[in-house]
Amino acid sequence: MAGRLFSRRILNGVFFRSFSMKGINLKKGPHDYPVPTGSDHWRRKIRTLFKSMDTDGDGYVTKKDFELSAHRLTSYLNLNEKKAKEVLKMRLLAWEVVSKGKHDDCSISEDEYVSSIYDACSAYSELFIKIIISECDFADANDDGFITRDEHKAFFYGRGVPVKHSADVFKVLDTDGDGILSREEFIQGAVDFVFSEDENSPYVHFIGPLV
Asked: Which residues form the EF-hand domain (predicted)?
């Protein structure tokens, strides 16, 4: 249900948003990585990802965190009311994916989150792809298919990651150096962050400094 509601397709070359990886060409996709072993380094990255989702810092990921991240991004970019509602709707649909359709007042602990991501990576699950695409769409606040420097800062701000770290991460993601991030560039960084266990990967700080 969430996938159908979330998809917004416009044909004839105009940008479309959906939970599908179709049309996204990565230099290295999920299946090009070995299945994560759950190393200490890998778990540290996923705990960092969890912390960035736990927007209110109470130790659990909840629907409230996704609502708060939407409000924070909206405030940072000074979006109008119509766009703010679209961002909030997007985050609530992303919450449905992360919570796997459970009741609205459910909460996800750090251990539960790490285990869920590990299982999703081990099975190359559609769940992981949905989460990555939803985060890309959240960062692309104006729906044009690209992420600007300001949008990336807003993405960090919305997730509670110090904005001062955005510039360095943006530079790593912007592999062609054109000053904006394509969906492929952003998603490549996210895929590597979650699947790679290489401590020297350039994407190790995809969501800011590790916890």
From this structure: 41-76, 161-196
Question: Could you give all domains of the chain from N- to C-terminal order, each with its CATH number?
Answer: 39-195 (1.10.238.10)
Q: Which tokens go with 159? A: 């997730």
Residue that has been written with the tokens 């969501």 in this structure: 207
Q: What is the pLDDT of residues 155-179, one digit of tens each?
A: 999 999 999 999 999 999 999 999 9
Condensed to tens digits (0 to 9), the pLDDT of residues 71-125 reads 999 999 999 999 999 999 989 988 888 887 777 789 999 999 999 889 888 876 6
Distance CA 141, CA 178 (A): 19
